[in-house]
Specification:
This protein is 32% helix and 25% strand. The protein is α/β, with parallel strands linked by helices and 189 residues long. Helix 1 packs across helix 6.
C-alpha cells in the first residue's frame, strides 16, 4: 500500500467501554499507516477499556467526547464491535445523530461485528446490504437490511465486516472506500 495516500483524512472512531480490541486497534493502525488522522470519540473523557472477547486488555485514550464531536469536522467514521460497547453506544443519541449526519452526506462508514447495532438504532440499515457478527443478523434483517455471511460487504458509502478474523480484508476494503471518498472533489463548506 502506498504511504500517506489518506494524508489529511480525519477519521472518527466511535466507541465506548468493552470494545473488541482488535476491531479498533488494527483498523486504526492501518488507517494511520495510510496517512489518516484518527480520533477516538466516546461518551465520556479519559480512557475506554478494550476486551478480547470477554477478557479485559488494554485501555485506549479518548481524544474527544461525543458532545464535542462535530460530524462536519470528520471525513470518515469507523464503528468497532464488541457486544457491550455496541449495545451501550447504540443508546447514545449523539452517536446516532453523528452517523445519521454522515450517511445523509454520503460520507464513508466502516463497521465491523456488533458495531452495526448503532446503525440499526439510528434507523439507517433499511435497504442496505451488510454483514456482521452472525448473532446479530436477525437484528439487521428485522430492521430492513439484506444480510450476507461474507468477509466484507460494500454498499455505496458503507463497508461492513463480521469479526476479528476478517480484519485484513476489512482494512483493505475500508481504506479503498475511504480513499474513493477522499479523492472526490471536496464540496465548499
Amino acid at each position: 500500500m502506498s504511504e500517506n495516500k489518506l494524508e489529511g483524512l480525519r477519521v472518527a472512531i466511535l466507541a465506548t467501554n468493552l470494545f473488541e480490541e482488535a476491531e479498533l486497534v488494527e483498523p486504526r493502525k492501518a488507517l494511520q499507516e495510510a496517512g489518516a488522522r484518527t480520533f477516538v470519540i466516546a461518551p465520556k473523557s479519559g480512557e475506554i477499556q478494550a476486551v478480547q472477547h470477554d477478557t479485559k486488555t488494554q485501555k485506549v485514550t479518548v481524544d474527544m467526547t461525543l458532545d464535542r464531536a462535530k460530524p462536519e469536522e470528520f471525513d470518515a467514521v469507523l464503528l468497532p464491535g464488541g457486544a457491550m460497547n455496541a449495545d451501550a453506544l447504540r443508546m447514545e443519541k449523539k452517536a446516532q445523530e453523528f452517523v445519521k449526519t454522515f450517511d445523509r452526506e454520503g460520507k464513508p462508514i466502516a463497521v465491523i461485528c456488533h458495531g452495526s447495532w448503532l446503525l440499526v438504532s439510528a434507523g439507517l440499515v433499511k435497504g442496505r446490504h451488510m454483514t456482521s457478527y452472525y448473532t446479530i443478523q436477525d437484528d439487521l434483517k428485522n430492521a430492513g437490511a439484506t444480510w450476507n455471511d461474507e468477509v466484507s460487504v460494500r454498499d455505496r458509502n458503507w463497508v461492513s465486516s463480521r469479526k476479528p478474523d476478517d480484519i485484513p480484508q476489512f482494512n483493505k476494503n475500508m481504506i479503498e472506500l475511504f480513499l474513493e471518498a477522499w479523492q472526490k472533489p471536496h464540496k465548499a463548506a
